[in-house]
Specification:
mainly alpha; elongated
């Protein structure tokens, strides 16, 4: 029983390394997008020991759900469509 428990951590590390190598090969062949399983595993293990990592992960998740504006700070209604080769401009309203 004790010898089995002694191999749990090294076996887990070896499994993560093998899975990481597989994910790297798969990502290079198929140009796969998304977060690899090993990155998620390391992030979660780090979050167990460091509370600030948990806040970072939660912030990253909330930022990924926010809508990105085409040009932040630009006046609304103006836009450039490079695919069609058009630009739309609106005159500012005077009062």
């Amino acid at each position: 029983m004790q010898t089995a428990l002694a191999f749990v951590i090294p076996a887990g590390v070896l499994a993560v390394v093998l899975i990481g190598a597989y994910e790297l090969l798969r990502q290079r062949r198929r140009k796969a997008a998304g977060t690899p399983v090993t990155a998620t595993y390391f992030n979660e293990v780090t979050a167990i020991f460091y509370g600030s990592k948990r806040h970072e992960l939660e912030h990253r998740d909330s930022v990924s759900l926010m809508r990105e504006e085409q040009a932040e700070g630009a006046p609304p209604g103006n836009g450039v469509d490079l695919d069609q080769g058009t630009a739309s401009l609106r005159r500012p309203t005077t009062r």
